[in-house]
């Protein structure tokens, strides 16, 4: 029983370490002062495009984090199932002796 508890606790720590969300990428640096000033309409259009790109990147990052978490959960479940099977096999072997 103690071996099972130790295995499960170790698995939870491993899953916790793997499930950490990746740090968001640093935003692109603003370009140096433009050679000629843009008018207000162009500035608004550029700001809208930048916001859309940032939103798209945030959505992609969230989707990747969700997929990583699902993969880690699946791995943890498989590890727990394997530990349970290993324990059952060990108990069966011990019972035969």
The largest β sheet comes out as:
none
Helix content: over 70%
Rg, Å, rounded: 25 Å
Shape: rod-shaped
Helix and strand pattern: HH
User: Kindly state the mean pLDDT as a whole number?
Assistant: 81
What's the count of strands?
0
**Share in β-strands:** under 5%
Alpha-beta classification: mainly alpha
Number of helices: 2
The N- and C-terminal alpha carbons lie at a distance of: 18 Å
User: Unreliable stretches, pLDDT < 50, 5 or more residues?
Assistant: none
Summary, kept brief:
With 97 residues, the chain is mainly alpha-helical.
What does this structure look like?
This protein is an all-alpha fold. It is 76% helix and 0% strand. The protein contains two helices and no strands. It has helices spanning 2-18, 40-96. Helix 1 (2-18) runs antiparallel to helix 2. The chain is rod-shaped, with a radius of gyration of 25 Å.
